[in-house]
Write a structure and sequence with these properties.
This protein has 362 residues and is an alpha+beta fold. Helices cover 31% and strands 16% of the residues. It has two domains: 154 residues, NADH Oxidase (3-Layer(aba) Sandwich), CATH 3.40.109.30; 169 residues, NADH Oxidase. The protein is built from nine helices and ten strands. The longest helix is centred in the last third of the chain and has 20 residues. The protein starts with 18 loop residues before the first helix and ends in a 29-residue tail after the last strand. It binds flavin mononucleotide.
């Protein structure tokens, strides 16, 4: 299935203020009924948003639903102080949720009008999305929307089959549409990248602060609906050919299998031009569009961000001359199905909304 990268799914150009948006709002859609209860359409859109990937499955986003717009907030109480002191990966995660929201609106025949507002008067408000004018539902919007609930991080070994160049080109196209650059690295660079990831992972394993933080997000405390559940840890890569983040350090899974991973993994780096909150939100949207495109093309994916969380190692991935900064390292391949990770109930993400959610949303 081909996923055309252009002509859909982008609020292009991204508006800087709301004035031009208001002019286009002839056929408005209400997000809540007269009693202030969220409409089913709005609930569906928000559920798509919260299916996005997030660092350690922290789900660091919140929503304030107005009559005709949705405000997206960063939930900084969920920031990872050790691996993400600047909140970079937090905003990448919020960007991924934003992309899902946009795709869900498009797949519902509405043009999402997006305004990124990091650093505005309300410090945690990062974006506002308005369901804009009706639009015809493109094939790409439909395919990407269908992929949202099917995309899961896959930490299992992938098949040795190489990913065809035209599929990799689709992934690069998806990132480019969202204003980022995806570089699939050649074997020599790949081995160097994996070497740095391995070094970062080993360094972290000796850091008590890192282990304490990892414990917070991996220890199974009964009915928690965030963090990484043991069934998503994946097997143990005996030779660490693919140095995945080891989520089983604190709470080892009994009889966790040691298996061989693919010898020639497909590795890519996602870059943005510059490194500020707006670019992190952009990176998150590009990341999620790339991951959804991979899902549509039958590919599994894993993120490996360990060296990008250590400033000196991150510098190794920066192309200073072009101001290209690495935001995420990815692995793609054909893999067995992977387990979904839990999500908190929609209700827990709604902030001071005028639209209360019914109990059955839980
Ligand atoms: C910015 C960011 C960094 C991530 N880094 C890693 C990583 O280093 N290793 C890993 O296995 N998963 C990583 N993930 C994936 C998350 O753990 C995953 O999205 C989360 O557990 C939710 O699971 P799901 O993707 O299956 O929905 C990262 C995700 C994001 C958004």
């Amino acid at each position: 299935m081909r996923v055309p990268a252009t002509g859909v799914g982008r609020t292009s150009p991204v508006p800087r203020d709301l004035a031009p948006l208001e002019a286009t709002m002839q056929e408005e859609i209400r997000l809540a009924d007269s009693n202030g209860v969220l409409t089913p359409v709005a609930r569906g859109w928000l559920r798509s948003a919260l299916a996005a990937p997030s660092i350690h499955n922290t789900q660091p986003w919140r929503f304030r639903v107005g009559d005709r717009h949705i405000d997206i907030f960063a939930d900084r109480s969920r920031r990872l102080h050790v691996v993400d002191p600047r909140g970079r990966e937090l905003l990448i995660s919020v960007g991924a949720a934003l992309l899902n929201l946009r795709v869900a609106m498009l797949a519902n025949g509405r043009t999402p009008m997006l305004r990124l507002v990091p650093g505005g008067a309300e410090p945690d408000l990062v974006a506002q999305v308005i369901p804009g004018p009706p639009t015809s539902i493109s094939e790409t919007a439909r395919l990407l929307a269908e992929a949202i609930p099917r995309r899961h991080t896959n930490r299992r070994p992938f098949d040795p089959t190489a990913v065809p160049p035209e599929v990799l080109a689709d992934l690069c196209g998806a990132a480019a549409v969202e204003g980022a650059h995806l570089e699939v690295v050649d074997p020599a660079v790949r081995d160097a990248v994996l070497g740095v990831v391995r070094t970062a992972e080993h360094r972290r394993r000796r850091d008590p602060e890192y282990l304490r933080e990892l414990a917070e997000w991996t220890v199974d405390v009964g009915d928690r609906r965030d963090g990484i559940p043991p069934e998503a840890f994946g097997p143990w890569s005996a030779l660490e050919v693919v140095p995945l983040r080891d989520f089983g350090l604190i709470q080892p899974v009994p009889r966790r299998a040691a298996v061989e991973f693919e010898a020639e993994p497909t590795i890519a780096l996602l870059y943005t031009t510059g490194d500020n909150p707006e670019q992190w939100l952009r990176a998150g949207q590009a990341l999620e569009r790339t991951l959804l495109t991979a899902t549509v093309r039958g590919l599994a994916s894993t993120l490996m961000t360990q060296p990008l969380e250590l400033p000196q190692m991150r510098e190794l991935f920066t192309v200073s001359a072009e101001n290209q900064v690495a935001q995420v390292i990815l692995r793609f391949g054909y893999g067995p199905p992977s387990a979904p990770s839990p999500r908190r109930p929609l209700e827990s993400f709604l902030l001071g909304t005028d639209a209360p959610v019914r109990r059955h949303d839980r």
